[in-house]
Structures are given as C-alpha cells and as structure tokens.
Amino acid sequence: MPAVAIASGGNNKEYAGNLTLYVLVTCVVAAMGGLIFGYDIGISGGVTSMDSFLKKFFPPVYRKKELDKSTNQYCQYDSQTLTMFTSSLYLAALIASIGAVPVSRKWGRRWSMFFGGGLFCVGAILNGSAQAVWMLIFGRILLGLGIGFSNQSVPLYLSEMAPSKFRGALNILFQLSITVGILAANLLNYLFARIAGGWGWHLSLGVAVVPALIITIGSALLPNTPNSMIERGQLGEAKAQLQRIRGVDDVSEEFNDLVVASEESKKVEDPWRKLLQRKYRPQLCMAILIPFFQQLTGINVIMFYAPVLFDTIGFGSDASLMSAVITGSVNVVATCVAMYGVDKWGRRKLFLEGGIQMLICQIVVATCIGVKFGVDGNAENLPKWYAIVVVIFICTYVAGFAWSWGPLGWLVPSEIFPLEIRSAAQSVNVSVNMIFTFIVAQIFLTMLCHLKFGLFIFFAIFVCAMSVFVYYFLPETMGIPIEEMSRVWKQHCNV
User: How far apart are CA 168 and CA 156, in angstroms?
Assistant: First the structure.
C-alpha cells in the first residue's frame, strides 16, 4: 500500500506560536552554513577546467586535454589524482560528521557550526596559497572537516528553531544557501578564469574564506535552540527562549513535550545503540536511503564538474564556465520554489514530481549527446542550437532536483527522529551523504570515459528506483510537530 495517506489522517498536534522576525533572522544566519558547502561544490569543477591550474598541478591531464588529440573526448579528464583533489574533502567530512555528535549534544548546535567554519577558513587559506598538490589535498581535508561539522548541525538547528508549520521552508534555507554558494563559485570562476597571467585559480580557491567567516562569526552570535538548552538542564532559560522564538507567552504544551523528550534523552547512555533499536529502523532506513539516492541522482556530476562536462561535450572553456553559471542560477530559483511549496504541497509530491522531471531530462540529454558524439567522442563542437537544447534540458534537470531531492534530502532526515537520537541520526545522514558524494566524485571521470553518454542512463535508473521507493515507503511529514513525529512512524509501520 502506498504511503500517500498515512500521515494525513488523525489529529496532528499544533503548538501555539507564530513565525517571528527573531526566528527568521536566526534561521537565515544559521543557514549560511550551507554557503561553505555550496561554494566548495561549485569551485572545484571550475578550477579543474582552468588550463593554468591543470598545468601547475596536473600536467598529464593538461597534455591529454590540449596536446594529445588522439585522446577520446570523454576521457580527457580521466585522472584519479585530479578526482582525489575533489573527493578527498568528502572523506574528511564523513569523519567530522561523526565527531560532531558529542560536540552538538554537549555544547549545542551553534558551537558545532562555529568549529566547522573555523576549520573551513584555514583550509581555504591553504588552498588559495597552494604551491604543491599535497597542499591542495591537505587544504581540502580541512575544508571537509569544516563541512562535516556544519552539515551535521545546521539542519538540526533549523528544524528545532522553526514552528512546525514553517519548518519545511525554514529548513530549505540551508539548501538555498548551498545553491547560492554554488552560483557564487560559478560566477567567480568565470570572472577569475579571464584574468591575464593564469593566477585566477588562487582567487577562486582563496575567496572561500569569505563564506567561512560568515558562518564562523554568525554562529558565535546565534542563540541556542530550546531543545539543546533543555538537553543541558537549562530549563528556565529554555522556556524564556521558547516564548521569544514563538512570539507568545503560553508555550506550556510545547515546552512540556520538549522536557519529556529531554528526560527520555537523558536515559539514553548510548544514542548509537538506541538508534539501532527495532522501533527506529524505518526512520534509520530513511536516514540512509534518502542521502544514498540523493547522490545517485547524478546531481553532483553536474555541480562538481559542470564546466568539465560542458567542455567535454563540445563547449569552449569560457562557454563551459558560463553554462555552469546558468545552471547555478536555475538551481537558486528552483530552490525558492521548494521553499514556497514544501509546506503547501508536501514532501512526497515534491519528491515524486522532481524524480519524474529528472528522469525525463536524463534520457533526453543522453540521447542528444549520444547522437552527436557516439562512443568515440571526437566530433566537432556542438552547433549553437544543439548546445542550447542540451543546456535547457540540463537546467530543467537541475530545477527538478533543486525543488525536490536537493532540499528534501536534508529536511526529511533532520525532522523524523526524537531528541535522544537526533544528533546521532543526523550524523548517519551526513555520513552516508558524504560517502556516496566521495564515491561519485572519485569515479565520475572514469565512468564518463567508459560509459560515455550512457552515464546519464546509469543515473536515470537510480532516479526511477528512488521515486518508486518514495511512493511506497515514505509517509508525509508536512506540518507535524517535530516531537510528535514518532506517532507518524508508528502509524505508518502499522499500515
């Protein structure tokens, strides 16, 4: 039986409170943690398409791309060292997301963000001044540690601060911040690549300090969530904070539920073991499978390597960077659509519509590239009208992801767990996300070399599978208070 009606029945509890300016401002500041993630996603593909960067750090790739005309066009960027530059960050983020759990529980979500921003700042400085490949890789590891801490804490912070009826939109601020970071990186890559002397890549990598400082300084000024304050025994301060963020004096019902949840949390000595209990298996499956499917949509193929991909399928270097700017702009606009619709249309509808849209676009793009380049990849540059068609369908694909699996991949896992295991569960979510981000980033260029245009079909198969998964197994969580979520899953599993 499909899960379409599972969460819509029954009387959902609705706490008193409004969307206050205080909550809106704090959520906007916290969501800036997504800037560092987005900027990194966008910047790596851009600098790896800059000839000056390749000549300095990856000369074999440069020779294969520019000098060896016998190389299959699909294979010109195939280098494990080059992909390690991109993907090493995500192994570090995996480790950091696990280490962030005790920090988040003991000192609160905002200090986890602060620590992440500081590490990212140091990594950005090292990357921007790099003179050898080892400096690049070490800097990427520091960036990854920063992203792991931030990605573990920001979605939790947003979900706990937001009123339930606005939780979806406020949580998607994190994804919007990611998309803004990607767009900023694409724009800067385009501008810096045109600097005479070939030193623009220093600026592309070094400017990552700016979003790092924004989240570092911003997190130091943020208040703690009532949930984390109660978790640390600060009951009086937590109630006053809850009254402030809800904009009403009578918050007793929500406060009492939070206290009960905290008391249950304190009984849990090992949240990891608690997470594995039978009653939490459905939620745990979601925390694993949603980020797994999110990465196998193929979106990071576009976002990491958009300039490389466009260059490979026939665009010139400047044109490929500009095409990446276009896809980044679409990403931002479509994420705003998700913010508008997630608490109006629901999570499931967006998941399913986005999946269908991405599936169609991947099939069309694979067909267009296959017809033009075949399997040898050595065709002349695409005609202008043909290139426009490819860009339009890639943009439509990006839009489908940006208002579905992009933001919801972070939102849903962050809102479905009780307080006592929420930090541990979010760590699982981030870890799985980073594992498969690493795998996709590491093997993409090799897969492109071997699968050619069939790479898009490969990802389309997973898009089809994950849409079926959502249809049958994911309940609707729109508008349900975060502390009431266990009831939804109990009802869902009994259907």
Answer: 12
Q: 183, 325 in Cβ contact below 8 A?
A: yes
Residues 372-413 pLDDT 10s: 766 555 555 556 777 778 788 888 999 999 889 988 887 888
* Buried b or exposed e, range 281-290, using 16+ CB within 10 angstroms: ebbbebbbbb
Other Cβ atoms within 10 Å of 341 Cβ, number: 18
Q: How far apart are CA 214 and CA 369, in angstroms?
A: 40
Q: Of 132, 176, 127, 139, which is closest to residue 27 (Cα–Cα)? A: 176
Phi, psi of 40 (to 5 degrees): -65, -40
15: left (phi over 0), alpha (psi -120 to 50) or beta: beta
Contact (CB, 8 A) for 343 and 165: yes
Contact between residue 316 and residue 65 where contact means Cβ atoms under 8 Å apart: no
Apex 115 CA angle, 431 and 149, nearest 5: 10
pLDDT score recorded for residue 7: 40
pTM for this entry: 0.74
For residue 309, the SS3 value is helix
Distances, alpha carbon 26 to alpha carbons 18, 224, 362, 429, 433, in Å: 15, 10, 38, 24, 26
Which has the closest alpha carbon to 165: 17, 7, 337, 6? 17
Which amino acid, residue 391?
V
Instruction: Say which CATH topology domain 21-494 has.
Output: Growth Hormone; Chain: A; (1.20.1250)
- Tokens for 437, please give them: 């981000």
Q: Per the structure block, which two tokens stand in for 271?
A: 């949240």
Cα separation, 158 vs 482, in Å, equals: 11
Map 328-349 to HEC letters. Answer: HHHHHHHHHHHHHHCCCCCHHH
Nearest Cα to 55, choosing from 67, 43, 71? Answer: 67
Which DSSP letter does residue 109 get?
H
- pLDDT at position 2, please? 43
Residue 130 phi/psi, 5-degree rounding, is: -60, 140
406 close to 175: Cβ distance less than 8 angstroms = yes
Q: How far apart are the first and last CA of the chain?
A: 8
Q: Virtual CA dihedral for 307, 313, 317, 322, nearest 10 degrees?
A: -50
> What residue ranges of the chain have pLDDT lower than 70?
1-17, 65-80, 196, 265-269, 300-301, 303-321, 373-383, 419, 445, 482-483, 490-495
